[in-house]
Design brief:
Layout: H1 3-6, H2 15-24, E1 32-36, H3 39-52, E2 58-62, H4 66-75, E3 86-90, E4 108-110, H5 123-134, H6 139-172, H7 184-187, E5 188-190, E6 196-198, H8 207-214, H9 222-233, H10 244-276, H11 297-301, H12 309-316
Parallel strand pairs: 1-2, 1-3, 3-4
Antiparallel strand pairs: 5-6
C-alpha cells in the first residue's frame, strides 16, 4: 500500500484519533499520547514537551480541529485511561468572553491567550530574530527596533478591538463565519519608516461593511458589539482577545520591514565602512538568512519561543 493510499478520508475523521488511541494505548508501558488541534500545534507543543519528557516516549495525534480534540476527550473511558498519559491541548479562543463551557481537567491544557500563535509575538522573539536571522548585534539598533515594535503593536491592538468585538458577537450567536476570510493584509501595512498604517478601504463605508462583505455575512448588532468592546477595552492583556493568526501577521509585517528595510540600510553603511577598514576592523554585514513569508512565519518563530509558564506547570505536574 502506498503512502497516498493510506491518506484517505478516514484519516481526517474525528474518530481517527480515538481509534488510534484505542489501538495503541497499553497499560503496560508509559507512552504519553498528546492530542492537538492541528499540525502547527503539533510542532509547538512537541518543542516543549520533549524538553521536559525527553526520556518518555510521546505520540502526537492531530485531530484536525478544536471540537475534535474535545470530542475525543469526552469519548474516552477515564476509568480505564490514565489521565497523566492522555493529554489534550486546545486554544482558549473567545470561550471566556462569550461564556462558553470550558473543560477543566488535569490532563487538558488550554492556552491563556487566544491561541498558540499569540505566544510567537513578543519583544524577546523579535530580538532573537534580529540577531539570528538578520545578523544584527548592535545593541542600539536592536533597542530602537524593539521600542518601535512596542509602539506599533499598541496601534495594532487599538485597531483590532472593534474587529475582535464583532467576532465575539458572531461566536456568541453561533453565526457561521470564517474568520480566515478576514485578511490583515487588506487592512494594514507597515511602511518604509516602520509605521503601521491603515489601508484605504475605498469600496467600503466602514470597517464593519468590509467584515460583512469579505465573510459573506450581514450580521451586525451595534449594542451587542459595543458590549464586547467595553469588555475588552478594560482588558490589560490584548493577547486574550486578539486572534492569534492576526497578531502573528502583525509580527510578520514587522519582521519583513526589519529584514528588508533595516537590514539593507545597515548593510550599505557597513559596506562603506569596510571599504576603508583594515582586516581586523571590518564588520560583518547584516543580511537576511531565511526567506520570510506569511506561509512560513510560524515555523520560523515557534522554536524561538520561551515555554509559557502555564504550559511549563502543566507538563511538570505530569
Amino acid at each position: 500500500m502506498s503512502l497516498l493510499d493510506i491518506l484517505d478520508e478516514k484519516i481526517l475523521t474525528p474518530s481517527a484519533a480515538y481509534i488510534k488511541i484505542l489501538s495503541q494505548y497499553k497499560t503496560s508501558d508509559n507512552t504519553i499520547f498528546c492530542l492537538v488541534e492541528g499540525v502547527e500545534d503539533n510542532s509547538f507543543y512537541r518543542h516543549f514537551i520533549e524538553i521536559y519528557k525527553e526520556d518518555i516516549p510521546v505520540k502526537y495525534i492531530v485531530c484536525n480541529g478544536k471540537q475534535n480534540v474535545i470530542d475525543n476527550y469526552n469519548e474516552l473511558d477515564w476509568d480505564f485511561y490514565d489521565k497523566k498519559r492522555v493529554l489534550f491541548f486546545i486554544d482558549k479562543d473567545f470561550d471566556d468572553y462569550i461564556e462558553r463551557e470550558i473543560i477543566n481537567d488535569e490532563n487538558v491544557f488550554i492556552t491563556d491567550c487566544y491561541s498558540i500563535e499569540n505566544y510567537l509575538v513578543d519583544e524577546n522573539i523579535l530580538e532573537k530574530f534580529i540577531t539570528d536571522n538578520c545578523l544584527i548585534t548592535t545593541e542600539s539598533v536592536i533597542k530602537l527596533a524593539v521600542e518601535n515594535f512596542r509602539k506599533q503593536h499598541k496601534v495594532f491592538v487599538k485597531q483590532l478591538k472593534m474587529i475582535s468585538s464583532w467576532m465575539m458577537y458572531c461566536r456568541k450567536n453561533n453565526f457561521e463565519v470564517c474568520f480566515n476570510d478576514i485578511k490583515m493584509s487588506d487592512l494594514f501595512k507597515i511602511d518604509d519608516e516602520g509605521n503601521l498604517t491603515k489601508k484605504t478601504l475605498s469600496t467600503y463605508r466602514s470597517k464593519f461593511e468590509y467584515l460583512c462583505d469579505t465573510t459573506q455575512t450581514n450580521y451586525f448588532n451595534l449594542n451587542e458589539i459595543r458590549y464586547y468592546y467595553n469588555l475588552i477595552n478594560e482588558e490589560s492583556k490584548p493577547k486574550k482577545f486578539i486572534r492569534g493568526k492576526y497578531e502573528l501577521y502583525f509580527m510578520f509585517m514587522y519582521l519583513k520591514y526589519i529584514s528588508e528595510n533595516v537590514v539593507n540600510e545597515i548593510s550599505n553603511e557597513v559596506k562603506q565602512h569596510n571599504r576603508n577598514a583594515r582586516g581586523k576592523d571590518k564588520i560583518v554585514r547584516p543580511k537576511s538568512t531565511i526567506p520570510l513569508k506569511e506561509e512560513n512565519i510560524f515555523q520560523v518563530l515557534y522554536n524561538k519561543t520561551k515555554v509559557p509558564e502555564k504550559l511549563k506547570v502543566f507538563i511538570e505536574t505530569l
